[in-house]
Amino acid sequence: MNISLRKSITSDLEVFFLNQTDSEANFMAAFTSENPNDKEAYMEKWNRLMKDDTVHMQSILLGDKIIGCVIKFMMFGEAEITYAVSKEYWGKGMTSLALGQFLEIEKTRPIHGRVAFDNIGSQRVMEKNGFIKIGKDKGFANARGKEIEEFIYRLDA
């Protein structure tokens, strides 16, 4: 697999937006924006975040094709990680590989990740990269229209 990362640029947001508008991807992510199809709000938010020094955003490339992103951001004073890959590449090890590469360049520790209780694929991605499940939380998942449980993961080293 020819997976690599590079700093995200504005034109990459088109692919990220398309990934988020996929109904199954949105459902699995669960904790999404109220309206995942609002492109103007999406672009405004992510263009702002790309300029934030506390956000580390890398695009995932398969060869020269952008297939997703890995992002470190701060939430409640703690480093958090999130990632998304085009659905056609799910279950092929690419997300795990990309997260591993990201963790080699993003040295902030501890770093946390949150995963919907039923998103087994994302749980595996975290665990393959050394994250340990440390707890549970509940929150309103816009993509599901209800409160659901999420698992909290942490990587210390």
CATH architecture: 3-Layer(aba) Sandwich
Q: Are there runs of 5+ residues with pLDDT below 50, and where?
A: none
Considering DSSP H and I runs of 4 or more, what fraction of the residues is helical?
Answer: 25-40%
- Gross geometry: globular
Number of helices: 5
**Content of β-strand:** 35-45%
CATH topology: Aminopeptidase
Characterize the largest beta sheet: strand count, sense, and whether it forms a barrel: 7 strands, mixed
Order of helices and strands: EHHHEEEHEHEE
Q: What's the CATH class label?
A: Alpha Beta
Strand order of the largest sheet: 1-2-3-4-5-7-6
In CATH, what is the homologous superfamily?
Gcn5-related N-acetyltransferase (GNAT)
Total number of distinct structural domains: 1
Number of strands: 7
In terms of structural class, how would the helical and strand content be classed?
alpha+beta
Q: What radius of gyration results from the CA coordinates?
A: 15 Å
The end-to-end span amounts to: 26 Å
Using brief descriptors, characterize the structure shown.
157 residues, alpha+beta, Aminopeptidase, 7-stranded mixed sheet, 7 strands, 31% helix, globular
In short:
The protein has 157 residues and is of the alpha+beta class. The chain has helices at 13-21, 23-29, 39-50, 94-105, 120-128, and strands spanning 3-7, 56-62, 65-75, 78-85, 111-116, 132-141, 146-155.
Structural commentary:
The structure is a single chain. With 157 residues, the chain is of the alpha+beta class. It has one domain: Aminopeptidase (3-Layer(aba) Sandwich). The protein is 31% helix and 36% strand.
